[in-house]
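User: Here's a structure from my thesis project, written as structure tokens. My advisor, Dr. K., wants to see whether a designed sequence matches the one we expressed. Can you design one independently, without my sequence as a hint?
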């Protein structure tokens, strides 16, 4: 251990294990600190203390500071490092939070692990310790574990092929990454021919998940379409059938069999079917089995089934659980492919360029972010960047854009890497597949690109179908922001720490060209004109957005306090005569003018290159194609700007969004077509033989009319569209109770928030049950959070809230792990949170989830309904809210053994006429609770029955 660490000059350091109360570096309390020292190859624990009170905490922190001096530290995460900074800061009561009380060099195990093992996400030190097989019986969250895991990670790095280590070193040139020191030390050590004696066995990479399952030539061969007999489907679900042999604890469910037979009939009769079935029915197997049968019986005639989900969770469940189960169960082979949009896959050609010449493609600070990709790319079978969780493509869109496959770029290239191109391979696999699993986003981007991705398919299953309209809106509309300009200009020319971009690559290639000095010099001057035009365009766009933000703030009286909007609207609707557009018209024109100059400069470059002899410059044709490609992108961008700044198409609603933060110019402009239904019907539903709409929440008060209207099914022949509802397999009467505390003030009352917070506090402290609270506004959620935080903290009950330090997935995981905790969430927490068991026994729905009527899109939809003679409140607001309400309620009971209580803190469900729509959408009768005592008694009685 000593020699390897001396190689990287890290003979002396401390490993620190911290325990704290939650996920907020400024608010958490520290409960335990353990410190182990590594020196001269020995590990010794030097501090191990609980912090029971503020006094002991301060004493421990002071001892910690005295112990560590200025020696390097290893901690679990960057949040722990920030937390230590914050703790020292709080101890010294310094108002300037940026004061560096911790000057030590700090290493973050989580980041190191996510760089070297980028396919796994380690949320806790325990998880890391388990993966690194920390000795059984030892405390996996100890300070010794921190040191040992750190050492194993260094060993993993030392085991990498030398060429990967030197590539990593090249990526880190000019970077301040602490990894640079390790890599340099290791490279020198290896170069000096030193043998490394490894102490630990090699860390195993998990087997990468496949994106192709099964065989392409399975199924049956016939030249006529074959119906699938219901009996062929039913037998899998019988007690002696295939599923009972493949699944442990399989139970036949009559509703699941009814559902699957109904779906099979829809395939046979070329019908669409609205299939509503609650959690626990087994919807996915109920559509997968008929879908796979249909595609296999008729595959020789080109039949395949596309299955689309809204969420990644469901997509993963289908592809990694249900489909492999069926591959083992069905008596014939079939092929299933998981297909994502092109931009999810790394382009090997771009990667080749970047590894060969990172300097002219990516900025130094971006190169460090590429390290996880460097360690991943040699092992991936799919090239799907979501596998490489250490990179986090969504958090690094600028860097990812430089690596992701792009349709236009791809067409523009005579690709030398097409043999190992991930996009080409998976698309070819998809053509041969019986079943192709996609998400709604891909489905609609395919729709707007004339089926360029999925080709001509006839059968579709839309799962989580209640989200279809919202996703379609996003893809059928238009969007413009400063980032769109940045995305384009940075590909052409970017000057940050260094100069990068196509124009710089062109300049470098020119120096090695075979052109005469005179031609080189003339072309260099054309490149300079291009870079100047690119900079000017970017500056004009920045100026436009600065002006837009200033004018919009003035116009809307919107203001920021910290990161919170305190007045006015964040989303503002506009039209062709909007005063904001008139005020910035000159700035728009100026940006346009600069864009035209850039266009001209790029045209000159491509025209000059066209006239060159073929051997004038290596890679000239490819560079010219790239210039033309970016010129086309500029054209498309300007068309979008024109469309959005005119704001004149009456079939669209236009709005802009104020920047999310103070001193930001990140305003965004949107346009969305108002009539999604007609577009969906004409471009998708009319062309399909069968479309299965699957969801737990399609109907409102037992009727599908609302959903059919929204997506265009109402205007199709009635015999083309079937409706089916499966009863829930849960015994809601015995498993759940729905209580409405009618003693709470009306939601509009100024006393409402405080009364809710008080009631939440009492319920939490007296029942001590896992509780999910669903809000409709951040403002109310924050207000309740601050009223509950201290009392719950004192009672040892973690209070978790959306938007505080952790992602939705991390928060849900934390909530699931705790025996008793409280989770606060808005919007996205109303659906998709799946926490069975005792971690979620109480569900609180605060206000009824009506959409905000002043929201531009909502307002425009409602106006349209009213203009057409409808009643927008009853025809739109109520049904939308009912569907969301049902989704929210669905979080409570997730299995047949779950028990729980739903509390509806909005007494409009019993006082208003429309309340009956909500109540009739629930599986059991809600009980009115006239007083707090009655409510508490009900809760006690319910939870006393086991
Ligand atoms: S074929 Fe296209 S996506 Fe694939 S590596 Fe080549 S350029 Fe990239």
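Assistant: Designed independently from the structure alone:
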């Amino acid at each position: 251990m000593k020699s390897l660490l001396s190689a990287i000059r890290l003979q002396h350091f401390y490993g620190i294990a911290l325990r704290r109360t939650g996920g907020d570096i400024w608010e958490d309390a520290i409960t335990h600190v353990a410190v182990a020292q590594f020196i001269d190859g020995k590990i010794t624990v030097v501090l191990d203390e609980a912090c029971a009170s503020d006094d002991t905490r301060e004493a421990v922190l002071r001892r910690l500071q005295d112990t560590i001096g200025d020696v390097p530290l290893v901690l679990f995460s960057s949040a722990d490092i920030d937390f230590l900074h914050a703790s020292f800061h709080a101890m010294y009561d310094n108002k300037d939070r940026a004061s560096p009380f911790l000057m030590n060099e700090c290493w973050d195990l989580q980041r190191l692990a996510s760089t070297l093992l980028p396919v796994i996400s380690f949320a806790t030190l325990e998880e890391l310790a388990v993966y690194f097989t920390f000795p059984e019986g030892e405390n996996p969250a100890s300070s010794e574990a921190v040191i040992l895991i750190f050492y194993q990670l260094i060993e993993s790095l030392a085991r990498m092929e030398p060429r990967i280590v030197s590539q990593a070193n090249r990526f880190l040139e000019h970077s301040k990454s602490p990894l640079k020191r390790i890599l340099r030390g290791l490279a020198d050590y290896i170069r000096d021919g030193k043998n490394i004696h490894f102490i630990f066995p090699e860390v195993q990479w998990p087997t990468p998940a496949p994106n192709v399952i099964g065989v392409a030539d399975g199924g049956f061969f016939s030249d006529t379409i074959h119906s699938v007999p219901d009996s062929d489907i039913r037998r899998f679900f019988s007690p002696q059938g295939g599923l009972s042999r493949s699944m442990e604890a399989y139970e036949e469910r009559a509703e699941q069999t009814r559902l699957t037979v109904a779906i099979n009939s829809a395939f046979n009769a070329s019908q669409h079917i609205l299939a509503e079935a609650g959690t626990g029915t087994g919807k996915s197997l109920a559509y997968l089995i008929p879908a796979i049968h249909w595609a296999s019986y008729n595959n020789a005639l080109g039949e395949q089934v596309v299955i689309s989900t809204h969420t990644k969770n469901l997509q993963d469940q289908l592809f990694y659980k249900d489909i492999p189960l069926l591959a083992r169960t069905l008596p014939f082979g079939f092929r299933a492919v998981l297909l994502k949009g092109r931009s999810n896959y790394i382009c090997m050609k771009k990667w080749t360029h970047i590894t060969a010449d990172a300097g002219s493609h990516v900025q130094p600070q971006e190169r460090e972010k590429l390290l996880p990709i460097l360690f991943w790319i040699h092992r991936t079978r799919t090239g799907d960047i979501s596998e490489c969780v250490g990179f986090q493509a969504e958090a690094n869109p600028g860097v990812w854009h430089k690596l992701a496959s792009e349709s236009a770029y791809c067409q523009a290239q005579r690709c030398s890497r097409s043999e190992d191109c991930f996009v080409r391979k998976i698309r070819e696999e998809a053509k041969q597949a019986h079943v192709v699993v996609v998400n709604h986003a891909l489905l609609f981007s395919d729709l707007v690109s004339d089926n360029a991705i999925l080709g001509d398919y006839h059968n579709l299953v839309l799962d989580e179908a209640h989200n279809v309209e919202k996703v379609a809106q996003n893809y059928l509309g238009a969007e413009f922001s400063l980032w769109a300009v940045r995305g384009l200009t940075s590909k052409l020319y970017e000057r940050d720490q260094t100069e990068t971009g196509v124009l710089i690559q062109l300049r470098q290639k020119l120096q090695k060209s075979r052109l005469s000095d005179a031609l080189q010099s003339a072309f260099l001057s054309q490149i300079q004109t291009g870079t100047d035009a690119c900079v000017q365009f970017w500056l004009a766009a920045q100026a436009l957005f600065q002006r837009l933000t200033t004018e919009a703030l003035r116009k809307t009286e919107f203001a920021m306090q910290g990161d919170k909007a305190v007045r006015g609207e964040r989303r503002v609707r506009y039209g062709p005569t909007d005063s904001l557009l008139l005020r910035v018209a000159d700035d728009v024109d100026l940006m346009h003018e600069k864009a035209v100059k850039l266009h001209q400069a790029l045209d000159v470059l491509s025209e000059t290159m066209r006239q060159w002899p073929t051997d004038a410059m290596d890679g000239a044709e490819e560079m010219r194609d790239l210039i033309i490609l970016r010129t086309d992108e500029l054209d498309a961008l300007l068309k979008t700007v024109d469309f959005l700044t005119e704001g004149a198409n009456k079939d669209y609603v236009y709005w802009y969004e104020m920047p999310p933060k103070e001193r930001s110019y990140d305003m965004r402009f949107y346009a969305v077509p108002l009539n999604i239904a007609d577009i969906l019907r004409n471009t998708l539903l009319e062309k399909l033989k069968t479309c299965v709409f699957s969801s737990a929440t399609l109907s409102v008060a037992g009727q599908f009319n609302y959903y059919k209207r929204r997506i265009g099914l109402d205007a199709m022949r009635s015999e083309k569209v079937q409706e089916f509802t499966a009863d829930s397999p849960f015994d809601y009467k015995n498993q759940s109770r729905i209580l409405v505390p009618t003693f709470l003030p009306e939601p509009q009352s100024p006393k409402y928030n405080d009364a809710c917070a008080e009631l939440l506090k009492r319920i939490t402290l007296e029942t001590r049950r896992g509780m999910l609270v669903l809000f409709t506004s951040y403002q109310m959620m924050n207000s309740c959070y601050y009223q509950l935080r201290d009392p719950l903290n004192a009672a040892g009950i973690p209070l978790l809230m959306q938007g505080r330090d952790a992602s939705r997935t991390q928060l849900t995981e934390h909530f699931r792990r705790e025996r008793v905790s409280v989770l606060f969430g808005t919007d996205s927490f109303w659906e998709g949170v799946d926490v069975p068991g005792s971690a979620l026994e109480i569900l609180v729905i605060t206000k009824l989830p009506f959409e905000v009527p002043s929201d531009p899109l909502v307002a425009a939809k409602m106006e349209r309904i009213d203009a057409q003679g409808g009643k927008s409140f009853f025809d739109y607001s109520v049904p939308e809210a009912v569907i969301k309400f049902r989704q929210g309620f669905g979080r409570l009971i997730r299995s047949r053994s779950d028990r729980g209580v739903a509390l509806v803190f909005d007494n409009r469900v019993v006082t208003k006429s429309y309340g009956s729509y909500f109540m009739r959408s629930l599986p059991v009768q809600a009980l009115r609770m006239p007083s707090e005592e009655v409510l508490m008694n009900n809760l006690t009685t319910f939870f006393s029955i086991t």
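When you compare it with your expressed construct, this may help: The CA atoms of residues 476 and 672 lie 7 Å apart.
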